[in-house]
Amino acid sequence: MKxxxxxxxxxxxxxxxxxxxxxxxxxxxxxxxxxxxxxxxxKDTPADGAKSAKAAPGKPKSMAQKLQACLEIDxxxxxxxxxYDEVIKPKPNPKAKAPTKSVTECxxxxxxxxxxTCFNGYVEKLPKLPS
Length: 131
What we know:
The chain has about 130 residues and is mainly α. The chain has 4 helices and 2 strands; from the N terminus they run H-E-E-H-H-H. A two-stranded antiparallel sheet has the order 1-2. The model is unreliable at about 45-55 (pLDDT under 50).
């Protein structure tokens, strides 16, 4: 019984001494600090509470969602064509034919009116995607 009491006293005293020591430093691997990875959901906020210069982007939009967003601009305007051109860069092709196989081929038309009509034809047929 005495041995158990002595063992318990020794264990409790060592635990108490370990807790009263200096605060723990950052873990080290050799002479370099250990890198700690945060989970995807965790956000790193600045220590001074200031907002970061870069706004947190939402989900990246697909090409179809970007093209459908262009439909909100008035039809037949230069602004709508510019919106389409930002999504699909125009690459003028002198041999471009009127019947295209996909929306990406609409950038091949040199004439702005033909290009706008081509984009509208494809984008208006797309099913409405959730935003």
